[in-house]
Amino acid sequence: MMLVHLSDLHMTRKSGVQGVLFEQLVSTLRREREASGSTEATLVITGDIFASMERLRGNGVRFVPISANYYDDLRARLDLGEDLVRRMQALDILYDRSSSGEYFHAYGETFADRFFFEIVQRRDYDGYGAVNAPARMAAQEQHPNP
User: Fold this and answer.
1) Is the pLDDT of residue 7 over 50?
2) Tell me, what's the pLDDT at 112?
3) 2, β-bridge pairs
4) β-strands 102-107, 20-21 pairing
């Protein structure tokens, strides 16, 4: 897994590969995958996931759609404001929290032989949102690489 800060990426339009390709990373991802056989996800860290998701979508980046049931479950399990849940749902953002912080994350559609980006915002959270792995995997299964 690679870590990248969102401001370090240069996005350009490119047809045939999800509309937008993070060209600086693709060759690195391929080399790392060939060397280790395991690189699939690249974490892209941002300080404002909502603004980042709006900007990325505006530039044509496609994200894995998350089931409405996921957000119904969030409402039932956690005391989150309805406005926050609606904003997350509109942008396909997943959420987790611990006693010390919060974790927002979203998953780009796979590209270039199975790579995907995970857009992440941490607020004093030290985990990786493992509770959301089933929702991510189901969404990726239902929306495979085009």
Assistant:
1) no
2) 66
3) 42
4) unpaired
Is residue 90's pLDDT more than 70? yes
CATH number, residue 12:
3.10.180.10
Q: Is residue 35 part of a domain?
A: yes
Quick check: is 26 in a domain? yes
Task: For the chain, state the CA radius of gyration.
Answer: 15
Task: Look at residue 143 and tell me if it is in a domain.
Answer: no
Contact (CB, 8 A) for 79 and 104:
no
Q: Give the span between the Cα atoms of 94 and 116, in whole angstroms.
A: 16
For residues 84 and 89, give the distance between their C-alpha atoms in angstroms, rounded to a whole number.
9
- SS3 per-residue string spanning 103-117: EEEEEECCECCCEEE
Confidence of residue 2 (pLDDT cuts 50, 70, 90): very low
Higher pLDDT: 12 or 122? It is: 122
State the total domains in the chain.
1
Residue of 68 and 6 predicted with greater confidence = 68
Q: Is 97 exposed, middle or buried (0-12, 13-18, 19+ CB in 10 A)?
A: middle
Whether 56 maps to a domain, the answer reads yes
